[in-house]
Amino acid sequence: VSVPDGQQIGRELVHFADIDSTNNYAKKIGNDGCPHGTVVTAERQTLGRGRVGRLWQSDNSRGLWFSIVLRPDLEPEKVQIITLAASVAVVEGIIEVLDINCGIKWPNDIILGSCKLGGILTELSAEPGHVNYVVVGIGLNINQDSGDFDQELQDKAASLKLFTGKTHSRAKILSGILKSFEKIYTMLLAGETRQIIDKWNKYSVTVGKEVRIISREVEYIGTAQSVALDGKLVVKCKDGTLREVSSGEVQVRGL
Ligand code: BTN
Q1: For a 10 Å CB count at each end of the chain, is N or C smaller?
Q2: Residue numbers of the domain that contains 235
Q3: What is the residue-wise DSSP string for 178-199?
Q4: What domain count does the chain have?
Q5: Strand pairing category for 63-70 and 233-237
Q6: Could you tell me if 21 and 124 lie in one domain?
Q7: Quick one: DSSP state of residue 163?
Q8: Is the CB of 50 under 6 A from ligand 1?
Q9: Of 166, 223, 230, nearest to 197 (Cα)?
Q10: Which tens digit of pLDDT belongs to each residue from 20-71?
Q11: Residue of the CA atom closest to atom 16 of ligand 1
């Protein structure tokens, strides 16, 4: 994996053949003071973790499984934007290297066609008012054939190989994503959050669509308008009111 001169993201890179979860290791070295931008990759994970306590199938070397340790000078309440920035970096990295257009499905799934190509799991270590580090874990399906996916994923998961019929270099894709990550992280530090949100909305397959919001208390239909700075989805209801929904609370279904 090559990193341009001056790029901080990926300058330090730790690679494992097998590990439980690159996010777990990234948190460990984050606690031990590793430099900002350190990247942890693995051929295989025995306990890859997804959002909301799910498992992330990553028991083979056909995907990209990696985590980035960041030390942003942001208040803990503002780190949500990093996950939005990471989704944009993945989409732009894939466009740059392969000229393939992926989409972002709220909150932060990477979509190809109508299937899930990848996902992002962000974990934060903070004290009141201060961020120690943020771990951005990214899983992307690259060279899987459909038989490589667990049964229940087979009609839900995409891979770049399934989409293009070709095998792709994981190292090239990783380099491209790290480079676009560096670019968008620089925008973030420069306070260009509006531009990041605009990019997210541009790549989003959720914005502009009718969605059904299902929570424990209510169920309603609205049109997804945008993502908010804190990662919530802004939905315009039939009566014109705007509601913000957070990913923990609700399910969103396209209609
Ligand atoms: C999701 O549920 O969509 C998020 C999946 C995130 C998976 C990646 S793979 C690398 C990193 N290590 C983990 O254990 N999880 C993330």
Answers
A1: C
A2: 210-254
A3: HHHHHHHHHHHHTT-HHHHHHH
A4: 2
A5: unpaired
A6: yes
A7: H
A8: yes
A9: 230
A10: 999 999 999 999 999 999 999 999 999 999 998 999 999 999 999 999 999 9
A11: 137
